[in-house]
Amino acid sequence: MANSSGRSGRKNAEQLKGNTSPLGATVAPGGVNFSVFARDCSGVELLLFDRADDAVPSRVIPLDAKNNRTYHYWHVFVPGVGAGQLYGYRVAGPFEPQRGRRFDPGKVLIDPYGRAVAVPDGYRRGDACLPGDNAASAMKSVVADPRGYNWEGDQPLKRPYSSTVIYEMHVAGFTRHPSSGVSEERRGTYAGLIEKIPYLKELGITAVELLPVFQFDPLDAPLGLRNYWGYSPVSFFAPHAAYSSKQGPLGPLDEFRDMVKALHKAGIEVILDVVYNHTSEGDHNGPTFCFRGFANDVYYSLAPDGSYLNHTGCGNTLNANHHVVRRLIIDSLHYWVKEMHVDGFRFDLASILSRDGQGRPLKDPPILWDIESDPALAGIKLIAEAWDAGGLYQVGSFIGDSWKEWNGEFRDDVRRFLKGDEGMVSCFAARILASPDIYGHQEREPEQSINFVTCHDGFTLNDLVSYDKKHNEANGEGNRDGSDANASWNCGVEGATDDPVIEALRKRQVKNFIAVTLLALGTPMILMGDEARRTQLGNNNAYCQDNEIGWFDWKNVEEHADIHRFTKELIRARLRQSEASADVLSLSQLLGQARLEWHGVRLGTPDWSHESHSIALTVRSTTKSLVFHYMVNAYWEPLSFMLPPPRKLPGGVWHRWIDTSLDSPDDVAPWDGLPLVEGESYRLPPRSLVVLVAKNRTKSRTRS
Fold first, then answer.
1. Annotated active-site positions, please?
2. Gap between the Cα atoms of 183 and 193, Å rounded
């Protein structure tokens, strides 16, 4: 009996030590295994809480350096707890900023691998910046067990880029406005977005790119305002709790998965805007939430004196190519793909991932090749914002074969050409053909270029044609924040106007931008609300405007029904597929296989001069009886363009498909009812875009 009892006691003691792997809190038979990385510390305590706003933990479990530490991993198995348990850590160690160590035993730390975060009603960012205990106001991690959710057979959709139209949107801002029609308790939530899926499907977009949904700090903003965009992460695993309408600490997980599953059922992919370049802990004056309190010199890039390198403009820079941080990023990506079923990621300030711990660019960044070659991420959309705030600009040179890139050159050159800047014709021509001057050397598919004119960062499309200057006074920084390089034009009056002439011009310009974005080779992305002329009142940096400035006002959909219809029809045309042939080609694929002929106002004589403001292009399909003729007049006077002779066309005649100078519904005609165009030339009013089509009626039976 004595020997048996001794063996049982040793076995129980071994079990309570826990395991180093997996990291985080893992539900197992009889309890939960906790494991966390903490280097150079002198002690770790696991804290269990009953409620998010508790000032005192219900249980404190000191981890013994001899029994509960293996290498730099601290671990313990706690019997009798399970999913829903709130927890955190306190970590003691030296405070030696000059050596990169900033331990603070008074701070409650969330788990870097925690799957959910509970935020107390009395959360205060400032308490995490000051010395002393902050338990009552600190965020807490939550034990989660992903095995309990019923996915009903759902999987990532893996839609090809050639048939992808991306809609960049804010989860909360999409439905927060009362005009959304979403029930009050669901406005601004994952569930609220579910209610508006019919709108997204009817618009025709195939993928939503969600602004950050990782748990972020809403108080990382100027005094009196809130962080709205979410580029202030405190966790790389937990969905943002405030976007959930479900009660309870695990509600956000289920509601996020409900949203993904519902979007997939509608044929819409989910791409997450992920921030693996910095955290909300900021610089030396910032709060201690998590990473700083476990291993500051591991998680962050530091100067030799221990100060934070800031290539992000946000106070700190994640040390992405450190082996521990690389594992964290890969594990996070795996989690969102395997457990949360997302379809892809857009990496904010992705060039940070190509820097070493001292901020120097690497020729072959390990983390980027880890992501590129990971079999679990094969077929998942990977999109890079290929620049950072430290001056590294890698559009056209980003590492890897599977990455697509936000094409900032498309945004800037299309803006400048359509507003009438000189010397932009050749640049504009390259942008509508997937930027061969940037990407041609790589022999990649056209969809490597993610084409956009507007995104969350900058003017909305309405404001791009309504303001010459930014108007960020509401941000409380004296209008100093936000970019001054907007390449915008107010069309004659700054801001809103009742002048019908200016409004007509703005409407035409909006349609020009939408048409170019959706007709160009590459992968198009449009910003939430641009299809209904959403305005931010000239604010081009609305990161802290969790109000009507940043929200989608749904009254605009009816007020600007013509722009909404125009956008919808062009999306439909881009994705239209032939029903008369076994070869299934999207418009993008068709254009990519076509023969191109450049013109100016005269056939065969394009004007590439510095003073030119117009261009024309004939696109002859090599696989179908179809010819497109594009004409763009960015000049302030009307221009007459000569047309290719009808006798050389399929069917022998031109049909008008798009004319942005015309009112709805004539601005884009139904595909099976295109009006005939007669004559040897076509007169384009100022600031207008026209697309003509010639097609063989016996072989072209596509429907609008």
1. 348, 385
2. 11
What's the mean pLDDT in 547-555? Answer: 98
Cβ neighbour number for residue 500 with a 10 Å cutoff: 8
Q: Average the pLDDT over 295-320 and give the result.
A: 97
Long-range Cβ pairs for the range 532-535 (8 Å, 24+)? 532/556, 532/557, 532/559, 532/560, 532/563, 532/564, 533/460, 533/461, 533/462, 533/559, 533/560, 533/563, 534/460, 534/462, 535/460, 535/462, 535/463, 535/466, 535/496
Sequential DSSP letters for 276-327: -S--TT-STTS--SSHHHHHHHHHB-B-TTSPBP-SSSSS--B-TTSHHHHH
| Residue (of 398, 302, 319) closest to 356 by Cα position | 319
Neighbours of 217 (CB within 10 A): 24
- Token pair of 70 as six digits: 């293996």
Question: Helix/strand/coil (H, E, C) string of 176-207?
Answer: CCHHHCCCHHHCCCHHHHHHCHHHHHHHCCCE
Q: Write out pLDDT tens, residues 199-241.
A: 999 999 999 999 999 999 999 999 999 999 999 999 999 999 9
Three-class DSSP labels, 292-303: HHHHHHHHECEC
Q: Are 657 and 669 a contacting pair, CB within 8 Å?
A: yes
Separation of alpha carbons 552 and 182, rounded Å: 12
Question: Parallel, antiparallel, or unpaired for β 381-384 and 404-406?
Answer: parallel
| Overall average pLDDT of the 613-641 stretch | 92
Distance CA 369, CA 365 (A): 7
Beta strands in 5-104 (DSSP E): 24-28, 31-37, 43-49, 59-63, 69-70, 73-79, 86-92, 95-96, 101-102
C-alpha 74/C-alpha 293 separation (Å) is 14
Residue in this structure with the two tokens 């892809």, named with its chain if needed: 344
What do you get for the CA distance between the two ends of the chain, in Å?
A: 83
Beta-strand (E) ranges in 80-151? 86-92, 95-96, 101-102, 116-118, 140-142
Dihedrals phi, psi of 651, to nearest 5 degrees:
75, -10
Q: Which helix (H) or strand (E) holds 367?
A: helix 366-373
Vertex 100: Cα angle to 96 and 101 (nearest 5): 50
Q: What is the pLDDT of residue 11?
A: 46
Omega before 606 cis (within 30°)? Answer: no
Taking only the tens place, the pLDDT of each residue in 328-346 is: 999 999 999 999 999 999 9
Polymer length of the chain: 704
Distance of CA 400 to the CA centre of its chain: 20
- Partnered with residue 92 across adjacent β-strands are 43
Distance in angstroms (rounded) separating the CA atoms of residues 426 and 608? 6
Q: Are 306 and 98 in contact (CB under 8 A)?
A: yes
DSSP per position, 233-268? BS-SSSBPGGG--S-STTHHHHHHHHHHHHHHHTT-
Contact (Cβ atoms closer than 8 angstroms) between residue 434 and residue 448: yes
Q: How far apart are CA 507 and CA 523, in angstroms?
A: 24
Of residues 306, 240, 337, 236, the one with CA closest to residue 277:
236
Beta bridge partners of 695: 626
CA–CA dist 296, 185 (Å, integer):
39
